[in-house]
């Protein structure tokens, strides 16, 4: 029996009046789309505008546009990111399926088949070429490593794509940028992240940072922070919060601490839009929204921090993703897309971008249900006579069984829904990703089954891989542990374990073992 660590989790005056209405922004899309071309983009604009088309139309063009899941310009047809293959050190660029469209994840799957890949570069879709590569050592952290390319599978717009899942010790950076705000210039930025993969360590950031990977003083950063770290008390609720990392503090207001008692954080929302804008002189604002529905909520809009060094700001113009400005790299987080602009976008432009993010279809149905084919959404029902209305679900990070019906809460039905993925350690087997915690998989630890975020290690891959076989009771399907093949996924006393047929542990009891390890693969409770 191995002992592998359990990954930590913490549960989680507008800037100006709108100069353009949302309708006005959309009215000029067609005229500007053809002019807003990212590196490698073809010279024919697609019909549907994307976030950087919106911001250009509002007079605040993108100076950085990073995404692993889709094009952020309607006319962009170039690469999104680069992966490196472990087996031979080969590299491949992963692009879009169509101009202005979604990532070609199948190309990644084919290139990485039979081995593993890490993400080595995230391309800037803007004409500025501000590409992000794996971050080097800094004042507070050793050199980072690339994130595993397959750690965060997700459905966006009906397409199977991958996001970026950051674990401690991972991060990306560009210290030699073009067009990014410096020395008090105005800028805006957003990222789509997740409220289900967070912690209270420093610092899951995206935005403007120092050019030498060190803390060079107050006001030398201007980046979105997302996590549960409360730098200035009081913070209200449990978070995670959208905050401004302006260096030497994560700010929820000019005082640092939250002046907004209603800002209790986003909670475990699977997809979150996090937004920061700063005029660099005397005003910044923070917003967030559900990236799957609805609009944006402003949590702060007011003066720069009252401590010295922040008014004016002293940004240096590097871009950081996943760490603090000095490479403080203890944080975890998820990243799907993000941009930075020249100048402060109007509120109407922000609203139009949020509408486009919602329309992208983050976390939508996979299009397949009820089978063990990769990409299919399923629920697993117990077949033991005692428990035929019980389903395998997660609760407080652990796997359990409990009754689930059509009358159950949406949370219960989501917790009992899993997405079948190719086995993380063996593609002929399967892994089970949580429907409502993107990037979290069922894995065993000391034989107990937990829901945990994939960290890319070979140990996690093996622990999270199960090999289907005909049900040991003669009905349904049994799932053998990949690295303990005599142990099967079993429910026992409402918990779920990797259990053998007889053994020293209570959950290895031979009584009803064959029934307890046989599961009915059912249609999902959550669409």
UniProtKB/TrEMBL annotation:
> What is one Gene Ontology biological process annotated in the Swiss-Prot or TrEMBL record?
L-arabinose metabolic process
Key words, A-Z: Disulfide bond, Glycoprotein, Glycosidase, Hydrolase, Signal
Domain (Alpha-L-arabinofuranosidase B catalytic) ranges: 51-362
**Cysteine-cysteine disulfides:** 52-62, 112-117, 202-203, 429-467
> Which Pfam families did the record assign?
AbfB (PF05270), ArabFuran-catal (PF09206)
**Coiled-coil intervals:** none
Residues covered by the Alpha-L-arabinofuranosidase B arabinose-binding domain: 380-521
Spans traversing the lipid bilayer: none
Q: Which residues are named in the active-site annotation?
A: 247 (nucleophile), 326 (proton donor)
Q: Which InterPro entries match?
A: A-L-arabinofuranosidase_B_cat, ABFB, AbfB_ABD, AbfB_ABD_sf, ConA-like_dom_sf
**Which CDD domains does the entry mention?**
beta-trefoil_ABD_ABFB (cd23399)
Q: Which family does it belong to?
A: Belongs to the glycosyl hydrolase 54 family.
Protein name stated in the entry:
Alpha-L-arabinofuranosidase B domain-containing protein
- Protein's organism: Streptomyces collinus (strain DSM 40733 / Tue 365)
